[in-house]
Amino acid sequence: MEKAMHGAHGIGYEVYKRKHEVRMQVEKKREQDYKESRRMIAALDRRVHANI
């Protein structure tokens, strides 16, 4: 978990766990990444179905 947290967000889990402000920044970024991935999937899905 520690390596994944550090690799994905540049901070360790202990800092994430202790600092509310850092936690909120990480969660905001996760939410943005999730929304962007959903948009990309929807766009790919539209392209696939348009070519059928």
Q: What would you note in describing this structure?
A:
The protein has 52 residues and is mainly α. The chain has helices at residues 2-9, 13-18, 20-50. The protein has three helices and no strands. The protein is elongated and about 50 Å long. The model has no long low-confidence stretch (mean pLDDT 91).
Biggest sheet statistics: none
One letter per element, helices H and strands E, the order comes to: HHH
Tally of helical runs? 3
Ends: how far apart?
41 Å
Low-confidence stretches: none
Question: What is the number of E strands?
Answer: 0
Shape: elongated
**How does the helix and strand content classify structurally?**
mainly alpha
Proportion of beta-strand residues: under 5%
Rg estimate, integer Å: 16 Å
- Work out the helicity level: over 70%
Residue-averaged pLDDT? 91
**Chain oligomer state:** single chain
What topology emerges from the helices and strands here?
Elements: H1 2-9, H2 13-18, H3 20-50
Any descriptors?
single chain, mainly alpha, 87% helix, 52 residues
